[in-house]
Amino acid sequence: MSESASTHSTQRFDVILIGGGIMSTTLGAILKELQPDWNIALFEKLDGVGKESSDPWNNAGTGHTAYCELNYTPRGTDGSISTAKACGIADQFHVSRQLWSHWVKEGVLGTPRTFINALPHISFVWGPKNTQYLRDRYHAMRAEPLFSHIEHTEDLDTVAGWAPLLGRGRADTTPVAASRFEDGTDVDFGSISRQLAGHLGAQGVAMRYNHEVSGLSRGTDGRWDMKVKDTAAGEKFSASARFVFVGAGGGALSLLQSSGIEEIKGFGGFPVSGQFLRTTESAITEEHHAKVYGLASVGAPPMSVPHLDTRFVEGRRSLMFGPFAGFSTNFLKAGSYFDLPLSVRGHNLIPMLQVGAANTSLVTYLMKEVAKTHKKKVEALRDFYPEAHPDQWELITAGQRVQVMKRNEKGKGVLQFGTELIASADGSIAGLLGASPGASTAPSIMFKLLERCFPGQIESWKPQLENMVPSFGRVLNEEPKLLHEVSAATSATLQLGS
């Protein structure tokens, strides 16, 4: 498949990756290991990688294992708690841990503590109805091998022992409940992206920063052609590839639309911005060592579930609380206010209007969030940390999240929370839409991409893939022995304890 790097004025590659976040760098590192002879280029419009959604301050860094995120374990109409989505996400995060462990051993990633740290994950609720839900969730989850080590308490003193800030200043008249997993993590996806980018550059991948791709079109030779602008030099040129991955976060929708593939028709994007309260006061940060998730407010999107998180960024410890959702029409933090209106097409107009009509409560919620003062935001924080003082917390703006709007099986427009892989029928182009739990499950998503886009090669790659990820193609929740082996091995390599 290998091509020469350039032919006359058009630079030719086997693979072009658009966007420099966790998705593109993960795919690039996987492909370079599977096919070292392939000629690969990465185009990123900013001056470095991991500066949008992968940046540690633009996401929660949770390492989504479905341990504490209550929206992954909904209560059904029959009253039961569904664990199916949580099991799927937890299995995928174990895949991520295996791949990162492999890369640590191979020297692709550096010292584990530069990108992953052990951190308990706690779910915390209050009030009779919510405590009953968490109790039922506990019993449902502990029946699954992936979650059999869950702990649960409804004793305020025990909660305070797990996370002192939660108990300090809290009246004991309101019932509370908490569930805990001690083997949770905090992940810096920006650090992983940068380390993978450094590896790719050392392996001969053309890493082109300050390079913006303006559109995609299919050439008569079947290759994908694109116009690229070197914004630093003010120069334009053409590039082409046999395979293109659009991992441009909020910028992926417009690029996939420009490609004209049938598979993108009907898709739209709903941008949601976010803010967090942050403190670096050591007297506070040293007393909280956990990620604590609660329940979302009525009408709030799942991505707006409130959480109080310990963060480890560049060796410094801090606490972050939020998110406080907002609305902006730009699809990227460094995007344009015209992103949303310019994304409207004839094929997605009706689905987008249907989504708007069906989600008036979401619009109302966003308007209320935008209007919240700093004082009101601190009041929300006090639900978790009753003694929070406003002067000790600063407000930071997180990354943009573009939720997927699409037609469901009945042809009606729906708003989807999650990650959507879009690939052309012939597998020559693929892209990613949506948000959480995206970054945490990047390796699994990229393996799914390989199966869809490279069906003729996946079998020959399988031995290498199984070396990279021992559980490749298997379901850990169905194989408790393998789950134990994999968990123990990755914990040792990633220095996460037993």
TrEMBL record:
EC class name: oxidoreductase
Molecular function terms, GO-annotated: (S)-2-hydroxyglutarate dehydrogenase activity; L-malate dehydrogenase (quinone) activity
Enzyme Commission number: 1.1.5.4
Family: Belongs to the MQO family.
BP terms from Gene Ontology: tricarboxylic acid cycle
Keywords: FAD, Flavoprotein, Oxidoreductase, Tricarboxylic acid cycle
CC cofactor: FAD
Keyword Transcription regulation: no
Pathway as given in its UniProt record: Carbohydrate metabolism; tricarboxylic acid cycle; oxaloacetate from (S)-malate (quinone route): step 1/1
HAMAP family: MQO
Catalytic activity: (S)-malate + a quinone = a quinol + oxaloacetate
Record protein name field: Probable malate:quinone oxidoreductase
Annotated source species: Nesterenkonia sphaerica
